[in-house]
Amino acid sequence: MSSNPDFDRWYAAKSARFLLEPSHRLETFGNTLVNYHLISELDDHPGKVRVREGRLEAHQPRVITPRFAPIETEGLGEEARAYLEFLKENEANLRILQYGYHLKSDNFSEQILTERLSVVSERVKSDVLSANDGFAAVVQCVDDPWDVALVELWLREVNRSARGNISDLQRSGKLF
Predict the structure, then answer these.
(1) Contact 121, 20 (CB under 8 A)
(2) SS3 of 94, please?
(3) CA 154, CA 32: separation in Å to the nearest integer?
(4) Which of 18, 128, 161, 172 is the most interior residue, by most CB within 10 Å?
(5) 152-162, pLDDT tens digit by residue?
(6) What is the DSSP letter of 30?
(7) With left for phi above 0 and alpha for psi between -120 and 50, is residue 151 left, alpha or beta?
(8) Percentage, residues of the chain above pLDDT 70
(9) Can you give the C-alpha Rg of the chain in angstroms?
(10) pTM strictly above 0.85
(11) Residue 149 in contact with residue 50, Cβ under 8 Å?
(12) Rounded to an integer, what distance in angstroms lies between the CA atom of residue 107 and that of residue 33?
């Protein structure tokens, strides 16, 4: 790790490699458990690889309707004021999906193996594929701060699932 924690988090997020993503999207009408497998090489020990496994619980998306209270528009032009007024008049038709998640520690485990990173990564990926778990992910990431990779996984899954979740909610009449 560097002396700059912001850089460390940015680096951890950008260097995460998603070797296997869930084949199923997040559930629309219930919580989803994503079984994660994080693989990282120990920084100061070449040839040592840590494998972390656990569950990431993505909560059922909630539909949120914004409420536009009177907004001061000092310094804004007429177009901005008109647009804000339009939003206020149509707030009943605006919807936002909110996703939450919870890192569960009840199934968390980690082990350190003495092998090359590529060998461990391929073996874990192969094992997960053979288990046929549609909600499993395999991510190669930095060892510290490793949990940033979980946030990246959650963000990817929310982005990947949102369109289908919105369609499900529209069909069920729960969006509007």
Answers:
(1) no
(2) coil
(3) 11
(4) 161
(5) 999 999 999 99
(6) S
(7) alpha
(8) 92
(9) 21
(10) no
(11) no
(12) 11
